[in-house]
Amino acid sequence: MSGTDTTTPHPTVGRPLTVAKARIDEIIDADHRLTRLVYVYLACATAWLVFGTLIGEYLGLKFTWPELGVAPWLSFGRLRPVHTNVVFWGWTSLSMIGLALWVVPRTSQRALHSLRLAWVALGLMNAAVILGVIQLLAGVTNGAGEFREFVWPIMALFASGLVLLGYNLYRTIARRGTEEIYISNWYILAAFIMTSILVTIAYLPWFQYGLGDTVIQGYYMHQGVGQWFTPMVLGLTYYFLPKFLNKPIYSYSLGVLAFWTQVIFYTMIGTHHFVFSPTPWILQTVAIVFSVGMLVPVFAGTGNFLLTMRGSWRTITRSYSLPFIFVGVVTYFLGSTQGTFEAFRTLNRAWHFTDFTVGHAHLTMYGFVVFLIWGGIYGLVPRLTGREPPQLLVGMHFWLAFVGLVVYVGALSIGGTLRGLSWMSGTDFLDSVRLMEGYWLGRAVGGTLMFASHLVFAWNLWSMRPPALFADSGTTVQRPPQVEPTPAGATS
Amino acid sequence: MTLDFHKNHRLLFGTVFGLFLALSGIIAVGPALWVQNNNRPLPDSRPLTDEEADGQQVYLSEGCVYCHTQQVRPIPQDTSRYGRASAPGDYARLGPRDLWRQTPSVLGTERTGPDLSAIGDRQPSDIWHHIHLYQPRAVVGASMMPSFPWLYETKAEAAPGDVVVPVPQSHGPDDGVVVAGPRARALVAYLLALKQAPLPGATSTVDPTGSTDASGEALGVRIYGARCASCHQAGGEGVPGVYPPLVDDPVVLADDPTRHVQIVLFGLSGETIQGTTYPTVMPGWAEQLSDEEVAAVVNHERRSWGHEAPTTTADDVARVRQGGPPDEQ
Ligand code: HEM
Ligand code: HEM
Fold first, then answer.
1. CA B63/CA B57 separation, integer angstroms
2. What is the predicted pLDDT for the residue at B174?
3. ipTM
4. Category of B244 on φ-ψ map: left (φ > 0), alpha (ψ -120 to 50) or beta
5. Is any ligand 1 atom within 6 A of the Cβ of residue A355?
6. Rounded to an integer, what distance in angstroms lies between the CA atom of residue A388 and that of residue B184?
7. What average pLDDT does the structure give for chain A?
């Protein structure tokens, strides 16, 4: 039975630097084999985070000091795809999956269909990222389309991991102990289904000659962020937010509306990455129109989350996971709305091709996706392992990451805008390079804070490790399905 | 069996699967097939040679695409710098490289450096590209482009047939000569092949400087910046030992501009200028620049940097052009 272990009182004196945060109020009595699985997913992901953003940091410094390390495998052109692919497929994907492997069984009130398949998938995906990094460092690329740089045999490893996990979670949901499928599972399983299709289409060659490649590249880039990362973290948040706040989600049907509009509208907007390119004009217009349509799921989603949070500010400030979730929800709104504006031809004219896009990419991927993941990890893992990270260090993690992100995105948004205006004014291209120097340095400063926060986070994750991480000290019998109620509101 | 998304997982996830597949067909696969099948290579373009195709792979794997686009948008800020707006036919020859690698995504999404759709026109000198790739800051002081020295070798002495790269002393190795390796040669061959073939039915030729709307002084400044500054530098000071300064240069200051015009039209090499013999070549611009443009840039050189030399006109340039290259060349 869950929730039985009530916490012993802990003194909150002796932490003058922080507001005392509430300690977790329950320790979930989970199958520790599932706990270990989830934790190892998160640990692998975090190793990729530290590696991937160390490289991001190094790339950022190279804009100011281009001669910082001159060797083929230290060069900007080879390391940039290493950064993007490692943070996409290594860190973000594995951490989201780790959390989903907990959330889906829990909300379905069934044990995970197969622990073993989940371990196999972890191996496949890690292997894909390791081999992919080696491939890129060796100077081999698939075609240099962003996030599609791994050659197909390597991406196939990742894709098989996806399919295995999708199957595993589908079986879990199919045998659920509740009548209804909780909304989190809509989002999470849909993400697996759509991404499996997406990767397959992106790697089939028959329609990718000439500009066909560009059409597919736009579709792939946007469905990657829109139908993989976005629905995954939204699904997780539909579980974590009500769970940590201990109250029902504001409106279940808003969640359903956001779901269907997300699936339909998001699929249509890929070509907005190629506005003014020689791809068919009508395709670009469709993409722009649906980019405006995207306001519907974004407003519905953020509205739903914010209204759920309303009246609980005290709980949020006293929690160490909820501030991450709050920032994630707000940046989901800001970043996506910003994206809609970027798609308009009048604004795209100025912003396209500049660092403004890189700012948008980090505002969304980092501020939205990664902050929601961190919120989930800090809320869930202590409940699973009974070990809490030092609160001061969680505060450090939060503030370093948050301030770093603001500096990073601020510098690139201002610099990118000025650079676009400089191009429009028709002055020498090199003027726009000189103009960016200060802003690139600003990005490197923000990036340094962000990277420092990742080291703190890695330490925090270590201090939350399960007691029986290495030794299998508990029972090996599969426990009966959990009977803890799904989050409040799950059945409304 | 209930037809309720909330309760029927087969229905819910089956719908998601079918919907996403169908929409992907409509918005991605269908249009991709359409553009693939309805665009032919431009009649005046040619396929890449084997060496150029290898160069394209170097371009991809060294990550040039992450900083350079190859798509000129149909808006003035692009067409005035980089050439005519790109057309689908420009890309129609692209296809998967082999069983392992997909179609090169050369269009790019970011312009940390300039667009390269017509770089072969804008900068026709292979040696300039080699110096720039070996060390961008040797020729472009404010550049933050990475250097690619591993594409080059340093040898004690050049062998016959080697492409020697005359890197300025300040940026070169202490001793020995820099020689382009095979990958560098392929890459530069590819860069030089990046030219925009004329669109069928278009009246004017490629005009990467978009000079039509500017005249006289402004035109001269623009052309000098786009065509000449990479070698002779923005202030006309040149690169010591590699590219001659134009400030106080006898040809630029000569009362009769004919030779000045000849050099700009037909290029120059092996000449000793004020005691220095340059190891590099001055490309001729007869094919890329109109008479007005040549007159504008020549006059710009004759009136800048404190110069007050007599100027020339488009008509004079036309006469020199008709006369052809001088005999000694
Ligand atoms: C409704 C919401 C959104 C819209 C309309 C939108 C729109 C756009 C547009 C127009 C661009 C291209 C900008 C350019 O190249 O000029 C772009 C780039 C990008 N967006 Fe969004 N965006 C949205 C939400 C998101 C979200 C939620 C994420 C992340 C999860 C995201 C991640 C990215 C990334 C990574 C890029 C850069 C792609 C690249 O060039 O490498 N966007 N977005
Ligand atoms: C320490 C933190 C980080 C730093 C310093 C950093 C730095 C960088 C740099 C320098 C680039 C290349 C930009 C360019 O080519 O102009 C980049 C690209 C990118 N990074 Fe990061 N990064 C960090 C964290 C992350 C994280 C955690 C994610 C995703 C979860 C991410 C996603 C991306 C994406 C999607 C791009 C491509 C952007 C585009 O093409 O528009 N980064 N990053």
1. 10
2. 86
3. 0.90
4. beta
5. no
6. 55
7. 90
